[in-house]
Design brief:
The protein is an alpha+beta fold. 20% of the residues lie in helices and 32% in strands. The protein folds into two domains: 201 residues, Alpha-Beta Complex (endopeptidase fold (from Nostoc punctiforme)); 105 residues, Lipocalin.
Length: 327
Protein backbone atom coordinates (compact mmCIF):
# COMPACT_ATOMS: atom_id res chain seq x y z
CA UNK A 1 0.00 0.00 0.00
CA UNK A 2 2.75 2.46 0.91
CA UNK A 3 4.49 1.97 -2.44
CA UNK A 4 1.43 2.66 -4.58
CA UNK A 5 -0.15 5.42 -2.47
CA UNK A 6 1.30 8.41 -4.40
CA UNK A 7 0.19 6.95 -7.74
CA UNK A 8 -3.21 6.02 -6.35
CA UNK A 9 -3.57 9.59 -5.10
CA UNK A 10 -2.87 11.08 -8.53
CA UNK A 11 -5.26 8.61 -10.17
CA UNK A 12 -8.05 9.53 -7.77
CA UNK A 13 -7.36 13.23 -7.99
CA UNK A 14 -6.88 13.71 -11.73
CA UNK A 15 -8.92 10.96 -13.38
CA UNK A 16 -11.79 10.50 -10.96
CA UNK A 17 -13.85 13.59 -11.78
CA UNK A 18 -17.20 13.12 -10.07
CA UNK A 19 -19.16 16.03 -11.52
CA UNK A 20 -18.05 15.61 -15.11
CA UNK A 21 -17.62 19.36 -15.53
CA UNK A 22 -15.05 20.91 -17.90
CA UNK A 23 -12.10 22.77 -16.47
CA UNK A 24 -13.03 26.44 -16.07
CA UNK A 25 -10.64 29.31 -16.82
CA UNK A 26 -9.21 31.16 -13.81
CA UNK A 27 -11.69 33.76 -12.51
CA UNK A 28 -11.21 37.51 -12.28
CA UNK A 29 -9.81 38.08 -8.80
CA UNK A 30 -9.41 41.84 -9.13
CA UNK A 31 -12.06 42.66 -6.51
CA UNK A 32 -10.58 40.36 -3.88
CA UNK A 33 -7.92 41.28 -1.34
CA UNK A 34 -5.66 38.42 -0.27
CA UNK A 35 -3.22 38.66 2.64
CA UNK A 36 -0.56 36.46 4.10
CA UNK A 37 -2.20 34.15 6.62
CA UNK A 38 -5.55 33.91 4.83
CA UNK A 39 -6.96 30.39 4.58
CA UNK A 40 -8.72 29.41 1.36
CA UNK A 41 -11.20 26.56 1.00
CA UNK A 42 -12.60 24.87 -2.10
CA UNK A 43 -13.89 21.57 -3.51
CA UNK A 44 -11.74 19.80 -6.08
CA UNK A 45 -13.98 17.63 -8.30
CA UNK A 46 -12.41 14.20 -7.96
CA UNK A 47 -13.28 10.87 -6.44
CA UNK A 48 -11.07 11.57 -3.43
CA UNK A 49 -12.41 15.10 -3.10
CA UNK A 50 -15.99 13.89 -3.11
CA UNK A 51 -15.29 11.26 -0.47
CA UNK A 52 -13.65 13.88 1.78
CA UNK A 53 -16.57 16.23 1.25
CA UNK A 54 -19.16 13.56 2.03
CA UNK A 55 -17.39 12.06 5.04
CA UNK A 56 -17.02 15.51 6.59
CA UNK A 57 -20.54 16.57 5.46
CA UNK A 58 -19.12 19.73 3.97
CA UNK A 59 -18.97 21.65 0.71
CA UNK A 60 -15.18 21.77 1.10
CA UNK A 61 -12.63 19.08 0.34
CA UNK A 62 -9.40 21.10 0.10
CA UNK A 63 -7.69 24.12 1.63
CA UNK A 64 -4.50 26.15 1.38
CA UNK A 65 -2.63 28.99 3.08
CA UNK A 66 -1.85 32.34 1.44
CA UNK A 67 1.83 33.26 1.86
CA UNK A 68 4.38 35.68 0.48
CA UNK A 69 6.52 33.94 -2.12
CA UNK A 70 9.36 36.15 -3.28
CA UNK A 71 7.30 39.34 -3.09
CA UNK A 72 4.15 37.86 -4.61
CA UNK A 73 1.30 36.13 -2.86
CA UNK A 74 0.78 32.44 -3.53
CA UNK A 75 -0.88 29.46 -1.88
CA UNK A 76 0.97 26.71 -0.06
CA UNK A 77 -1.06 23.53 -0.35
CA UNK A 78 -0.74 19.80 0.26
CA UNK A 79 -1.93 18.34 -3.04
CA UNK A 80 0.57 15.65 -3.74
CA UNK A 81 3.85 16.99 -2.30
CA UNK A 82 3.39 20.31 -0.49
CA UNK A 83 4.04 23.11 -2.98
CA UNK A 84 3.42 26.70 -4.00
CA UNK A 85 0.50 27.39 -6.36
CA UNK A 86 -0.38 30.78 -7.84
CA UNK A 87 -3.62 32.31 -6.61
CA UNK A 88 -5.40 32.19 -10.01
CA UNK A 89 -4.32 28.58 -10.55
CA UNK A 90 -5.41 27.59 -7.05
CA UNK A 91 -8.85 29.13 -7.43
CA UNK A 92 -9.20 27.73 -10.94
CA UNK A 93 -8.67 24.14 -9.82
CA UNK A 94 -11.78 24.26 -7.64
CA UNK A 95 -15.18 23.20 -8.91
CA UNK A 96 -16.82 26.17 -10.60
CA UNK A 97 -13.92 28.40 -9.45
CA UNK A 98 -15.72 28.56 -6.10
CA UNK A 99 -13.70 29.40 -3.00
CA UNK A 100 -14.16 30.73 0.51
CA UNK A 101 -11.62 33.10 2.08
CA UNK A 102 -11.02 33.06 5.85
CA UNK A 103 -8.92 35.58 7.74
CA UNK A 104 -7.44 34.91 11.20
CA UNK A 105 -8.59 37.43 13.77
CA UNK A 106 -6.34 39.06 16.33
CA UNK A 107 -2.94 37.98 14.98
CA UNK A 108 -0.16 40.46 14.29
CA UNK A 109 1.71 40.69 11.00
CA UNK A 110 4.72 39.16 12.75
CA UNK A 111 2.68 36.19 13.94
CA UNK A 112 1.22 35.67 10.48
CA UNK A 113 4.72 35.76 8.99
CA UNK A 114 5.73 33.06 11.48
CA UNK A 115 2.69 30.98 10.48
CA UNK A 116 3.76 31.29 6.84
CA UNK A 117 7.32 30.36 7.80
CA UNK A 118 6.13 27.16 9.47
CA UNK A 119 4.12 26.28 6.35
CA UNK A 120 7.23 26.78 4.19
CA UNK A 121 9.11 24.25 6.32
CA UNK A 122 6.64 21.63 5.07
CA UNK A 123 7.33 22.28 1.36
CA UNK A 124 8.07 19.03 -0.43
CA UNK A 125 6.44 16.83 2.22
CA UNK A 126 4.56 13.90 0.66
CA UNK A 127 0.77 13.76 0.77
CA UNK A 128 -0.75 11.69 3.56
CA UNK A 129 -3.49 9.39 2.26
CA UNK A 130 -3.78 7.83 5.71
CA UNK A 131 -4.72 11.23 7.23
CA UNK A 132 -2.60 10.77 10.32
CA UNK A 133 -1.31 13.71 12.37
CA UNK A 134 2.24 12.40 12.37
CA UNK A 135 5.47 13.91 11.03
CA UNK A 136 5.99 11.60 8.03
CA UNK A 137 3.41 12.93 5.57
CA UNK A 138 0.87 15.75 5.52
CA UNK A 139 -2.59 16.55 4.16
CA UNK A 140 -4.14 19.92 3.37
CA UNK A 141 -5.94 20.83 6.61
CA UNK A 142 -3.14 19.30 8.68
CA UNK A 143 -0.79 21.82 7.05
CA UNK A 144 -3.03 24.70 8.18
CA UNK A 145 -3.39 23.23 11.67
CA UNK A 146 0.35 22.78 12.21
CA UNK A 147 1.33 26.13 10.68
CA UNK A 148 -0.90 28.09 13.07
CA UNK A 149 -0.07 25.92 16.08
CA UNK A 150 3.68 26.20 15.56
CA UNK A 151 3.79 29.75 14.22
CA UNK A 152 1.26 31.49 16.47
CA UNK A 153 0.55 28.95 19.26
CA UNK A 154 -3.04 28.98 18.02
CA UNK A 155 -5.15 25.84 17.69
CA UNK A 156 -7.43 26.10 14.66
CA UNK A 157 -9.91 23.47 13.55
CA UNK A 158 -11.48 20.80 15.73
CA UNK A 159 -9.66 17.51 16.29
CA UNK A 160 -12.12 14.72 15.59
CA UNK A 161 -11.92 10.95 15.46
CA UNK A 162 -12.87 9.29 12.20
CA UNK A 163 -15.66 7.47 14.03
CA UNK A 164 -17.33 10.85 14.69
CA UNK A 165 -17.64 11.56 10.96
CA UNK A 166 -19.86 10.14 8.21
CA UNK A 167 -17.49 7.26 7.43
CA UNK A 168 -20.00 4.40 7.06
CA UNK A 169 -20.90 4.85 3.36
CA UNK A 170 -17.20 4.77 2.50
CA UNK A 171 -15.94 1.92 4.66
CA UNK A 172 -14.49 -0.03 1.72
CA UNK A 173 -12.79 3.08 0.35
CA UNK A 174 -11.26 3.86 3.76
CA UNK A 175 -10.05 0.30 4.19
CA UNK A 176 -8.44 0.48 0.76
CA UNK A 177 -6.51 3.62 1.68
CA UNK A 178 -5.60 2.22 5.09
CA UNK A 179 -4.29 -1.06 3.71
CA UNK A 180 -7.21 -3.13 4.97
CA UNK A 181 -7.74 -1.64 8.42
CA UNK A 182 -10.48 0.67 9.66
CA UNK A 183 -8.80 3.37 11.78
CA UNK A 184 -11.89 4.76 13.51
CA UNK A 185 -9.81 6.09 16.43
CA UNK A 186 -7.62 8.15 14.12
CA UNK A 187 -7.73 11.85 14.98
CA UNK A 188 -8.26 14.25 12.07
CA UNK A 189 -8.58 17.95 11.38
CA UNK A 190 -10.87 18.70 8.42
CA UNK A 191 -11.42 21.65 6.05
CA UNK A 192 -14.96 21.91 7.44
CA UNK A 193 -13.67 22.31 11.00
CA UNK A 194 -11.46 25.17 9.81
CA UNK A 195 -14.46 26.81 8.15
CA UNK A 196 -16.36 26.70 11.44
CA UNK A 197 -13.48 27.86 13.65
CA UNK A 198 -14.21 31.13 15.46
CA UNK A 199 -10.56 32.16 15.17
CA UNK A 200 -11.32 32.91 11.51
CA UNK A 201 -13.64 35.47 9.97
CA UNK A 202 -15.11 34.76 6.56
CA UNK A 203 -13.96 37.61 4.34
CA UNK A 204 -15.31 36.42 0.99
CA UNK A 205 -16.99 33.49 -0.70
CA UNK A 206 -18.30 33.00 -4.22
CA UNK A 207 -19.87 29.62 -3.46
CA UNK A 208 -23.51 29.47 -4.55
CA UNK A 209 -26.09 29.09 -1.81
CA UNK A 210 -26.39 25.56 -0.46
CA UNK A 211 -29.24 23.53 -1.93
CA UNK A 212 -31.00 23.36 1.43
CA UNK A 213 -31.11 27.13 1.78
CA UNK A 214 -34.45 28.77 0.98
CA UNK A 215 -35.08 31.29 -1.77
CA UNK A 216 -34.93 34.90 -0.65
CA UNK A 217 -36.68 38.18 -1.27
CA UNK A 218 -36.08 41.81 -0.39
CA UNK A 219 -37.79 41.63 3.01
CA UNK A 220 -35.16 39.10 4.13
CA UNK A 221 -32.71 42.01 4.36
CA UNK A 222 -34.58 43.25 7.45
CA UNK A 223 -32.33 43.93 10.41
CA UNK A 224 -28.89 45.27 11.27
CA UNK A 225 -25.85 43.84 9.50
CA UNK A 226 -22.22 44.46 10.48
CA UNK A 227 -18.80 43.17 9.54
CA UNK A 228 -15.76 43.48 7.27
CA UNK A 229 -15.72 45.83 4.27
CA UNK A 230 -12.40 45.57 2.46
CA UNK A 231 -11.03 48.25 0.15
CA UNK A 232 -8.43 46.75 -2.17
CA UNK A 233 -4.99 48.13 -1.41
CA UNK A 234 -6.08 50.02 1.71
CA UNK A 235 -6.60 49.20 5.38
CA UNK A 236 -9.52 46.96 6.19
CA UNK A 237 -12.75 48.82 6.92
CA UNK A 238 -15.90 47.88 8.78
CA UNK A 239 -19.50 48.53 7.83
CA UNK A 240 -22.89 48.53 9.51
CA UNK A 241 -26.17 48.82 7.66
CA UNK A 242 -29.84 48.59 8.68
CA UNK A 243 -33.00 47.73 6.73
CA UNK A 244 -36.62 47.93 7.88
CA UNK A 245 -39.09 45.02 8.00
CA UNK A 246 -39.73 45.31 4.25
CA UNK A 247 -36.06 45.41 3.34
CA UNK A 248 -36.01 49.15 2.76
CA UNK A 249 -32.71 50.88 3.59
CA UNK A 250 -32.72 52.83 6.87
CA UNK A 251 -29.15 53.86 7.63
CA UNK A 252 -25.55 52.75 7.36
CA UNK A 253 -21.91 53.68 7.81
CA UNK A 254 -18.43 52.64 6.76
CA UNK A 255 -15.42 53.20 9.02
CA UNK A 256 -11.82 53.01 7.81
CA UNK A 257 -8.67 54.20 9.61
CA UNK A 258 -10.73 56.49 11.83
CA UNK A 259 -12.69 57.96 8.91
CA UNK A 260 -16.48 57.85 9.11
CA UNK A 261 -18.42 57.60 5.86
CA UNK A 262 -22.21 57.72 6.03
CA UNK A 263 -24.19 55.54 3.64
CA UNK A 264 -26.92 57.73 2.16
CA UNK A 265 -28.92 55.15 0.21
CA UNK A 266 -28.98 51.55 -0.95
CA UNK A 267 -31.21 50.71 -3.92
CA UNK A 268 -31.77 46.95 -4.19
CA UNK A 269 -32.82 45.38 -7.49
CA UNK A 270 -35.15 42.34 -7.51
CA UNK A 271 -33.60 39.12 -6.30
CA UNK A 272 -32.38 36.51 -8.76
CA UNK A 273 -33.26 32.83 -8.68
CA UNK A 274 -29.91 31.92 -7.12
CA UNK A 275 -30.62 33.93 -3.96
CA UNK A 276 -28.40 36.73 -5.21
CA UNK A 277 -29.11 40.39 -5.82
CA UNK A 278 -27.48 43.54 -7.13
CA UNK A 279 -27.72 46.98 -5.56
CA UNK A 280 -26.38 50.52 -5.86
CA UNK A 281 -24.96 52.23 -2.77
CA UNK A 282 -24.42 55.98 -2.45
CA UNK A 283 -22.33 57.51 0.34
CA UNK A 284 -22.00 60.96 1.90
CA UNK A 285 -19.10 61.87 -0.39
CA UNK A 286 -21.34 61.54 -3.44
CA UNK A 287 -19.71 58.29 -4.60
CA UNK A 288 -21.77 55.35 -5.83
CA UNK A 289 -20.86 51.67 -5.67
CA UNK A 290 -22.28 48.77 -7.66
CA UNK A 291 -22.84 45.77 -5.38
CA UNK A 292 -23.30 42.08 -6.12
CA UNK A 293 -24.34 40.07 -3.06
CA UNK A 294 -26.04 36.94 -1.80
CA UNK A 295 -27.15 35.39 1.46
CA UNK A 296 -25.14 32.66 3.15
CA UNK A 297 -25.70 30.40 6.14
CA UNK A 298 -29.50 30.51 6.13
CA UNK A 299 -29.71 34.32 5.99
CA UNK A 300 -27.19 34.86 8.77
CA UNK A 301 -24.54 36.39 6.50
CA UNK A 302 -24.32 38.68 3.47
CA UNK A 303 -21.33 38.14 1.18
CA UNK A 304 -20.51 40.21 -1.87
CA UNK A 305 -18.24 42.38 -4.00
CA UNK A 306 -18.42 46.09 -4.84
CA UNK A 307 -16.91 48.61 -7.23
CA UNK A 308 -17.32 52.36 -6.80
CA UNK A 309 -17.45 55.25 -9.25
CA UNK A 310 -13.74 56.03 -8.71
CA UNK A 311 -12.69 52.51 -9.65
CA UNK A 312 -12.01 51.19 -6.15
CA UNK A 313 -13.09 47.61 -5.52
CA UNK A 314 -13.48 45.31 -2.55
CA UNK A 315 -15.51 42.65 -0.83
CA UNK A 316 -17.73 42.59 2.22
CA UNK A 317 -18.90 39.97 4.68
CA UNK A 318 -21.65 41.09 7.06
CA UNK A 319 -23.32 39.15 9.86
CA UNK A 320 -26.92 39.74 10.85
CA UNK A 321 -27.03 41.27 14.34
CA UNK A 322 -30.79 41.83 14.73
CA UNK A 323 -33.98 41.27 12.75
CA UNK A 324 -37.33 42.98 12.22
CA UNK A 325 -36.18 46.58 12.13
CA UNK A 326 -38.84 49.28 12.08
CA UNK A 327 -38.67 52.70 10.43
Amino acid sequence: MKRIAPYLFMLLFVVGCDEGRPVSPPPDLSAYEFREGDVLLQHIPSRLGSVIRDITESRYSHCGLVVNNGGRLAVIEAIGPVKYTSLPEWVGQGQGNDFTQLRPAGLSAEQLAQVAGEARKLLGSPYDLQYDLDENKIYCSELIYKAFLRGAKLKVGALQKLEELNWQPYENFIRHLAGGGLPLERVLVTPESLAKDENFKQVASNFPAAVHEPSHETKDLAGIWAGVYTIKGLDEATAEIAFDAKGKFLRGEIRSAGEYIRIVSVRVNPFKKQRAFVAVLQDSRGLTAAIEACFKDNRRRLIGTWKDSQGYTGVFSLERLTENMQE
